[in-house]
Amino acid sequence: MIKKHLSILLAIVFWLALSLATILFLIPSKDLSIDVLDWSDKAQHIVAFATLMVLGIAAYPQAISRMFVGLLIYGAAIECIQSMTGWRSGDFLDWVADATGVMLIRMLLIVWRRYFLERNSLNSNHLNR
Fold first, then answer.
1. How many domains does the chain have?
2. Which H or E element spans position 22?
3. pLDDT category, 35, cuts 50, 70, 90?
4. How many Å separate Cα 85 from the centre of its chain?
């Protein structure tokens, strides 16, 4: 029961984060003059999409590949929509930064799984001898 509630909570957190990211990506940039956001645009994209990927994996651990592809498509869609507004501009390099954040988490997950799966496999083989 607790696991189900946790899954629902993680899904809500993911969708709230995605909604917030969408708003931040689409409001006029002059309205984003918060000191916290006053660092490299590309770094912001990397951190935002890495965070979304972590939250997405936590919320939907059975759909990691779909989350990966979905966030890549979402990033491209945001850049296309930004290019259609009069106050933002779409940038291919922003999408590259989005993809970097998503791929970074995906690669870390692969390495983490391989390391721990191999380690657990070695430990269980050692114990079974």
1. 1
2. helix 2-26
3. low
4. 24
